[in-house]
Amino acid sequence: xxxxxxxxxxxxxxxxxxxxxxxxxxxxxxxxxxxxxxxxxxxxxxxxxxxxxxxxxxxxxxxxxxxxxxxxxxxxxxxxxxxxxxxxxxxxxxxxxxxxxxxxxxxxxxxxxxxxxxxxxxxxxxxxxxxxxxxxxxxxxxxxxxxxxxxxxxxxxxxxxxxxxxxxxxxxxxxxxxxxxxxxxxxxxxxxxxxxxxxxxxxxxxxxxxxxxxxxxxxxxxxxxxxxxxxxxxxxxxxxxxxxxxxxxxxxxxxxxxxxxxxxxxxxxxxxxxxxxxxxxxxxxxxxxxxxxxxxxxxxxxxxxxxxxxxxxxxxxxxxxxxxxxxxxxxxxxxxxxxxxxxxxxxxxxxxxxxxxxxxxxxxxxxxxxxxxxxxxxxxx
Length: 381
Known about the structure:
Blueprint: H1 32-43, E1 50-54, H2 61-74, H3 102-108, E2 115-118, E3 122-123, E4 128-129, H4 135-139, H5 141-147, E5 155-160, H6 167-178, E6 184-190, H7 198-202, E7 205-208, H8 214-223, H9 232-239, H10 243-252, H11 254-265, H12 273-281, H13 289-310, H14 323-330, H15 334-356, H16 361-380
Parallel strand pairs: 1-6, 1-7, 2-5, 5-6
Antiparallel strand pairs: 3-4
Helix pairs in contact: 8-9, 9-10, 11-13, 12-16, 13-15, 13-16, 15-16
């Protein structure tokens, strides 16, 4: 747990590599509907004590949670009582608070005493984060609520992400949801809400966020320090509208790597074996571990796009030059779509097993490419 005055210097489990932490992200793009829904609840005095913020990874769920947390802590609890002169202040029209606001400054430093962040803990001895959020982290809420109750003001808890709680942690949090302290608001971030206890979901109001459109994605990447305006449409396609995934692709040269894959698969069913070998060898060694993971992900993405094309759902935007022409050639109908979908499932399962048993990366990549070539050859007949 963070947020009781200390500043964490260990790697942060709730921050995408190469991106600013959501608590330091000042703007949120493409999620106006969710922001307006929360603001409407606040202004109409229908505030729920627990909110489940859901949606795909990397679309701004944590950024929204931090915006809501800062907004709530910047608002007086009794803002609607009319004050000394009997006139209530006008209702807020935005969740925005200035970067010069004390709440913003304290939150950015994890030094806001009325804000508690629950996430996977850093294990100094093992030099890595825990595999999940433990019950010990959730139980620290008891001391947080006790220590922060002196002024009678609002208190906010962010759980990032609720999916990562183990069973004991989930049950401990459920007790707080069932009997929330006065003026407490809990914000649960979830990438896969179906994994949560039904009793947790039933005690929360959901705010669902969707994938970002290319323009919003480009603006979000620009806010994170990346200029992707020229490639925003391609990034939106390959990242499924996820800023987090788009950042990973940008940092890892994902667009260029996908273009290379398209050039390789353009030789199907007469595979260019020398080019395939070059692709596989680029994934060998500890220094190329990220490249290895990226290559597998992009191959799986290509197979998915093949299946969808044959099923009558071709991509609206090319993620690489000449991609659509290739997809139509290799997957012209529903029969081909079925075969590509089956192969995608088989190769995904094989890749998961191979990484679990540390199979040679080059061998796995070549095996995947050869099986794709075999399928293309069979379909061409």
